[in-house]
Write a structure and sequence with these properties.
The longest helix has 20 residues, at 43-62. Helices cover 34% and strands 24% of the residues. The strands form 5 sheets. A 5-stranded mixed beta barrel has the order 14-15-16-17-19. Strands 6-2-7-12 form a 4-stranded mixed sheet. The protein has 3 domains: 1-151 and 281-307, no CATH class; 152-278, no CATH class; 315-490, Fe-S hydro-lyase, tartrate dehydratase beta-type, catalytic domain (fumarase). The protein has 15 helices and 19 strands.
C-alpha cells in the first residue's frame, strides 16, 4: 500500500508542533521536576525549581515561550518506504517552511536566533531557519517525525571525546559534567551517545533526549544491557556531585540519563554528551496521508500548584539609587529583588562596546554605576512591553568583563549560571557584583519588566541594548564584591553532604 503525504500537511504539522513545544513542557518533565522540588533540601535549589515550575504553568496558560531562547530546530524524520510525496519543493524546504511559519506566528512570536555565515558576518536569517534535519528510511507507509527546539546555552555545553577502548565512560562523564557548569540550566537530562563514529555518537546523544523520563521504571525493573547499566550508574553518580538546580548546590542535577550505542571500530570508543535544559522542548507526530497531525493540548491539572514567597530577609534594591558602596554589603547566596532601570547587553553588544573602547570611541550608553542584564528577549505581543526575557549564559561575557568594569564604571551584572575565574577576579578587583537570574523562567521574569526600549545598536535585533524598568525582579547574589562564588561553594557543600549521608 502506498501513502501520499501532502506538502501542506507536513508544513502545518511542523509549525503546530513548534508552537506547541514553545509553551508546553512534556508532562514527564513536569512530574520529574516536581518530584525533585518536593525532596530538595537546598533552599536555593528549591527556590530555583519553584520558579521553573511557576514559569511553566504561566506559559501553558498564556501560550508564550518557556525560555527567551526558543532554540535551534532539530528534526528527526523516519520515512516509510511505501510513502510518496505530493510536494513541489525539496523536503528540507518543506520542513523549513513549517519552521518559518511557527517562528513568525503573530500570536506567539518566537525569537529568531539562527545566524548565517557563522564565522563571518553572523547575519540573522530572520525566521530561525534552516533547521537541522536527520532522515531515515524505514519499513512502512507512514512518516514519523520528532521535532525539538534546542537552546544555545545547553547546546554549548555538549562534549565529545574519542576515548581509548579501555577507558571508562563513567569516569569521563563524571569529569565532564562539572566542567559543563550550570549554563545548561539543570535540572535536566543528559543524552549520551557511544560508538559509531564521531558524528554518529553526537547524533545518538541528541536523539536519545527525545525519549521520555523513565529512570524510576528502569530502577524498578533493573538493567538488561550495558546501556541501561550506564544509565543507572550515571544517574546516581552525577546527582552525587551536588551541582543541583542552576548549579547552586543540591540533591538533583539530572532528572534522567539517556544512553544510545552503536557498533564501532576496534580502535575507537567515541563518546558524546549533550544536555537538555529546563526548557525541554520536543514533540512527536505521525503523518499517514489523511491530513495534518496536530498536537493535543495537555490539561492544566497536570501542573502542580506552586507558590514562591519572598522571604523576610530578602534585600530590596533600587537600581536608580544603589551605589558601589552598597553592593559591598551583599552576601553570596542572598536573594535580592531589583526595581528601577537596568541596561541589557549580550555577546554582540559587548563586542561592539569593547571594540569602541579600544578605538577610543564614546559609547552610546553611560554604564557608570549601572547594572547590565545579559538577555536577548522575545519580541512582545499584544499588551506586553517585552516578551519572555530570561538570562543568557554569563560565561560568554567573561572575556569582556575586565574591560567593561575598568573602563565604564559598571557596578553589576545579571546573567545565568556561574562566572569563570577571569570574571571573578575582575569582579573582586573592581568591587563589582554578579547576580544570577533563574534560567528557564523567562516568562516569569518578563512580568517584572514594566517598560522596555532599545537604546543602542538596534541593528543587532534581539542582541540590541535595551533599557528595562523592572519591579521586584528576583535574583541571587552569585559572586559578591570580594569574589566569593556560590557556584563554587554551593556544589562543594552539597557534594560533601550527600556523600556523608550515604556513608551513614
Amino acid at each position: 500500500m502506498t501513502t501520499v503525504i501532502r506538502q501542506d500537511d507536513l508544513i502545518e504539522s511542523v509549525a503546530d508542533a513548534l508552537q506547541f513545544i514553545s509553551y508546553y513542557h512534556p508532562k514527564d518533565f513536569i512530574d520529574a521536576v516536581y518530584e525533585a522540588y518536593q525532596k530538595e533540601e537546598s533552599q536555593a535549589a528549591k527556590d530555583a525549581m519553584a520558579q521553573i515550575l511557576i514559569n511553566s504553568r504561566m506559559c501553558a496558560e498564556g501560550h508564550r515561550p518557556l525560555c527567551q531562547d526558543t532554540g535551534i530546530v532539530t528534526v528527526f524524520v523516519n520515512i516509510g518506504m511505501n510513502v510518496q510525496w505530493d510536494c513541489d519543493m525539496p523536503l528540507d524546504d518543506v520542513i523549513n517552511e513549517g519552521v518559518r511559519r511557527a517562528y513568525k506566528n503573530p500570536d506567539n512570536v518566537l525569537r529568531a536566533s539562527i545566524l548565517a555565515d557563522p564565522d563571518g558576518k553572523r547575519q540573522n536569517t530572520g525566521d530561525n531557519t534552516p533547521a537541522i534535519i536527520h532522515y531515515k528510511m524505514v519499513p512502512g507507509d507512514t512518516v514519523e517525525i520528532h521535532v525539538a527546539a534546542k537552546g544555545g546555552g545547553s547546546e554549548a555545553k555538549s562534549k565529545f571525546a574519542m576515548l581509548n577502548p579501555s577507558d571508562s565512560v563513567v569516569d569521563w562523564v563524571l569529569k565532564m559534567v562539572p566542567q559543563m557548569g550550570a549554563g545548561w540550566c539543570p535540572p535536566g537530562m543528559l543524552g549520551i551517545g557511544i560508538g559509531g563514529t564521531a558524528e554518529k555518537a553526537m547524533e545518538m546523544a541528541k536523539e536519545s533526549l527525545l525519549d521520555p523520563i523513565d529512570i524510576h521504571d528502569l530502577q524498578a525493573r533493573g538493567a538488561s544491557n550495558r546501556a541501561e547499566e550506564l544509565r543507572l550508574e550515571l544517574f546516581d553518580k552525577v546527582n552525587d556531585l551536588g551541582i543541583g538546580a542552576q548549579g547552586l548546590g543540591g540533591l538533583t542535577t539530572v532528572l534522567d540519563v539517556k544512553v544510545m550505542d552503536y557498533p564501532t571500530h576496534a580502535a575507537n570508543k567515541p563518546v558524546a554528551i549533550i544536555p537538555n535544559c529546563a526548557a525541554t522542548r520536543h514533540a512527536h507526530f505521525t503523518l499517514d496521508g489523511t491530513g495534518p497531525s496536530l498536537q493535543t493540548p495537555p490539561s492544566l491539572e497536570d501542573w502542580p500548584e506552586i507558590t514562591w514567597e519572598v522571604g523576610e530577609g530578602t534585600r530590596r534594591v533600587n537600581l536608580d539609587t544603589v551605589t558601589p558602596e552598597d553592593v559591598k554589603e551583599w552576601q553570596p547566596g542572598e536573594t535580592v529583588l531589583l526595581s528601577g532601570k537596568m541596561l541589557t547587553g549580550r555577546d554582540a553588544a559587548h563586542k561592539k562596546m569593547v571594540d569602541m573602547i579600544n578605538n577610543g570611541e564614546e559609547l552610546p550608553v553611560d554604564l557608570k554605576g549601572r547594572f547590565i542584564y545579559y538577555v536577548g528577549p522575545v519580541d512582545p505581543v499584544r499588551e506586553e512591553v517585552v516578551g519572555p526575557a530570561g538570562p543568557t549564559t554569563a560565561t560568554r561575557m567573561d572575556k569582556f568583563t575586565h574591560t567593561m568594569l575598568e573602563k565604564t564604571g559598571l557596578t553589576g551584572m545579571i546573567g545565568k549560571a556561574e562566572r569563570g575565574q577571569v570574571a571573578i577576579d575582575a569582579i573582586k578587583e573592581f568591587g563589582a557584583v554578579y547576580l544570577m537570574a533563574v534560567g528557564g523562567s523567562a516568562y516569569l521574569v518578563s512580568k517584572a519588566i514594566k517598560h522596555a526600549e532599545v537604546v543602542a545598536f538596534p541593528e543587532l535585533g534581539m542582541e540590541a541594548i535595551y533599557e528595562f524598568d523592572v519591579k521586584d525582579m528576583p535574583v541571587t547574589v552569585a559572586v559578591d564584591s570580594r569574589g566569593s562564588s556560590v557556584h563554587q561553594t554551593g556544589p562543594a557543600e552539597w557534594h560533601d553532604k550527600i556523600i556523608a549521608a550515604k556513608a551513614v
